């Protein structure tokens, strides 16, 4: 087995970048999970100011550490219901600490992409773009707090996180072009590409409906309160039922996509493996969604459902990128495309 030290300098740089990018990507998904937990637990305003928390860089652990009139102070700032809760405060503060760590990791990713700019400038550009997007995400986080958790702002914040995931995945896929070149797709089923776009479109539609359900959940929470959580489902509009039923179609469509790959490329091809990983994620999404729908919207399941949606987006985007890279490195497939045979 070849050791990293014996590889050419460019290969060593690629290997280092891939490792750092993978760690960063995993950390971003962890932040999505933490952020979803903050939202599901109602801890989003655990720190009513930003970047400090109750005016301190390290938040208090007891209400007695705050001024006696702190509620009046925050009421004047537009946060009339502010009340210190040590669990919610430190949950939100942990979320912020994880966010800062992500920023450092993405900066490190951009730093490791610098030696690769001449080999593949797209890796460097995407890595720097992800770093700039994290800065913008931090600004959005401040706006979310100042808006007193306005649902629309929270959704934009989440979409920005997915945009960062997509940018990092693009950089990582570009760094794996060589590996995909060794995974030929010349024998792939001619229906695969069209069906892949159908599946991607279905996922976008499903996530869009899920976003609307999430927005409605926040609205119902404000109207009914946490005590009536088990009755939230009854107040949901029609698109909740569509969203719940549509998940079965998404699962079937992806199973068909996997069947096309197994029959044409076999079980060992990276595209097949990624597709079955995607199906597992869809299964997690369906199970967690059913749990939310039938067991009274338990708060601990909401982060899992959101994480599954984010993972599904990432896997489908990676499958699309990997397919394009593998296809572009297959001369026979390009000839078939030019003749209209694919």
Overall morphology: flat
Mean pLDDT: 83
Domain count: the total is 2
Biggest beta-sheet profile:
none
Number of strands: 0
Count of individual helical segments? 11
Query: Would you tell me the structural class of the helices and strands?
Result: mainly alpha
Radius of gyration: 23 Å
Order of helices and strands: HHHHHHHHHHH
Report strand %: under 5%
Q: Which residues form runs of ≥5 with pLDDT under 50?
A: 333-342
Task: State the share of residues found in helices, binned by percent.
Answer: over 70%
End-to-end distance: 38 Å
Topology:
Blueprint: H1 9-40, H2 70-76, H3 86-113, H4 121-146, H5 151-175, H6 177-181, H7 192-224, H8 238-265, H9 270-294, H10 302-328, H11 331-338
What does this protein look like?
The chain is mostly helical and 342 residues long. The chain has helices spanning 9-40, 70-76, 86-113, 121-146, 151-175, 177-181, 192-224, 238-265, 270-294, 302-328, 331-338. It folds into 2 domains: 1-175, no CATH class; 187-342, Four Helix Bundle (Hemerythrin (Met), subunit A), CATH 1.20.120. The chain contains 11 helices and no strands. Mean pLDDT is 83; it is low at 333-342.
Q: Summed up, what is this model?
A:
This protein has 342 residues and is an all-alpha fold.
Features:
Four Helix Bundle (Hemerythrin (Met), subunit A), 342 residues, flat, mainly alpha, 2 domains, 71% helix, disordered C terminus
